[in-house]
Amino acid sequence: MPLSQSFNIVLVEPEIPPNTGNIARLCGATGTTLHLVGKLGFATDDRHLKRAGLDYWHAVDIRYWLDLHELRVAFPHARFVYTSKKGECNHVSFSFREGDFLVFGKETAGLPEELLTANHATCIRIPISGPVRSLNLSTAAGIVLYEALRQCDGLS
To answer: Which of 5, 48, 84, 109 is 20 to 30 Å from 19 at the Cα level?
Structure first.
């Protein structure tokens, strides 16, 4: 399954249709492949999902995986970058590489603690100050993807 040198966004068990729709639109706008992993919290024909993606679905390369293990086996040489508010490295300080898989957890729980612990060297966070405990999933995906694109001269 060869991919272009663009980035990959991985959503593990996304729960909220408009978030996934917005991220699909982001992927279509940037040539990024979207990987949906595990049990989805909605049907892919959900009207809110489709509305958030507007009429750009044809422009998005979407792939479905039973679990993260299946995805990793399919791309054994890929680097997976895990996002979490518990990550030690700031997303701007991290050195992204073309082709990275940017992994985001489900809205209510994030990524499993054991996954983050096992991959601490490639676990990043978006700094947040103030009383807000987390960012919206689609906002976080946009922030991380555009920083990765900026670092790799992927913006034109």
So the answer is: 5
Give me the domains of the chain, ranges plus CATH numbers.
8-151 (3.40.1280.10)
Tell me the C-alpha to C-alpha distance, in Å, between residue 44 and each of 14, 39, 41, 47. Answer: 11, 11, 9, 9
Query: Quick one: average pLDDT of 44-59?
Result: 64
Nearest to 49 by CA among 11, 75, 81: 11
Per-residue pLDDT at 2: 39
**pTM (2 decimals)?**
0.91
pLDDT of 6 over the 80 cut: yes
* Residues 6 or more apart whose Cβ sits within 8 Å of residue 2: none
Q: What is the rounded distance in angstroms from the CA atom of residue 20 to the CA atom of residue 35?
A: 11
**End-to-end CA gap in the chain:** 27
Work out the percent of the chain whose per-residue pLDDT is above 70.
89
Residues facing 153 on adjacent strands? none
